[in-house]
Specification:
- A hairpin with a 2-residue loop joins strand 3 and strand 4.
- Helices cover 27% and strands 25% of the residues.
- The radius of gyration is 18 Å and the shape is globular.
- By secondary structure, it is an alpha/beta fold.
- The chain has one domain: Alpha-Beta Complex (Spore Coat Polysaccharide Biosynthesis Protein SpsA, Chain A), CATH 3.90.550.
């Protein structure tokens, strides 16, 4: 029997750069669908059978008002929630993306895709992850995008860069900072180099490994109000420790993201041309 695949959206934070609004609710679809709805519809078409939102203090109520409470269905697919919290007496912010994922460990019951809630990855990219997780290899997967297609025309950005062996299994994920489109060679990069946009397909048991990773990280950074335990870093550590194997798949799908006010108009026009 083929295991059903869940999708976990990390939507706990509010965006200061987006005017303190919920970016996922920016209307970008042809019928004014929100960015979140467009992404979920892509995931459902790709074969996802369960939706999990990792919400925070400020996003929990709006998401439940939009998509219903635990167990409600969106387009026939059940929706569940997990909440990422932190202690404001000792922290300025939550403990990062590993903390967000680990918050959902009790509602994860099999293989799952984990991704950002304010990015659009494309139906084909989701399908690649779903199909791989259902292929019974027992391995994890990352869907990589060509760097030249996911960096801004102007300005700088950071991206997680993959290193792989000859069989396309990932050996390392390294964060490269201040990437500029016209200066890729200065950092030893090429436009067709694959990078991470935080789209990973993981086996259910990996969340418990990451729970241990988080505990070690928190212990090592005790008293630090800002340190974040980041998913690409910890997955890279699990790979190096040979606790997981992760295949890298190249996607030709189009990634779209909303970062700043006005980006939703760019995304809306791009979705129109992709139809």
């Amino acid at each position: 029997m083929v295991e059903e695949v869940s999708i976990i959206y990390m939507v706990a934070g509010m965006s200061s750069r987006f005017g303190g609004k919920i970016k996922q609710f920016a209307q970008v679809g042809p019928n004014n669908e929100t960015l979140m709805e467009v992404s979920i519809q892509q995931a459902i078409k790709a074969g996802v059978k369960k939706i999990i939102f990792v919400v925070g203090e400020k996003t929990e109520i709006p998401f439940k008002e939009k998509f219903g409470k635990n167990g409600a269905k969106y387009k026939g697919v059940p929706v569940f929630y997990a909440k990422q919290t932190f202690d404001p007496l000792s922290r300025d912010k939550p403990w990062g993306t590993v903390d967000a994922l680990v918050a959902a460990k009790d509602v994860i019951s099999g293989p799952f895709i984990v991704c950002n809630g304010d990015d659009l990855y494309g139906e084909k990219a989701f399908k690649q992850a779903v199909d791989f997780l259902q292929s019974k290899t027992g391995e994890c997967v990352a869907v990589g995008y060509e760097l030249g297609r996911v960096i801004p025309e102007q300005g700088k950005t950071n991206r997680g860069m993959f290193k792989t062996d000859q069989n396309h299994f990932i050996t390392n994920i390294t964060e490269v900072f201040d990437i500029e489109k016209d200066k890729l060679s200065e950092k030893g990069l090429k436009a067709d180099t694959l990078c991470s946009m935080n789209l990973f397909g993981l086996k259910g048991e990996v969340v418990w490994m990451l729970s241990d990773s988080l505990a070690h990280f928190q212990s090592a950074h005790k008293g630090d109000r800002k340190a974040e335990c980041l998913l690409p870093n910890e997955l890279s550590n699990l790979i190096k420790e040979k606790k997981i194997k992760m295949k890298l798949l190249r996607t030709q799908d189009t990634w779209l993201g909303v970062t700043n006010p006005g980006d939703e108009e760019v995304v809306r026009k791009s979705l129109e041309t992709l139809k």
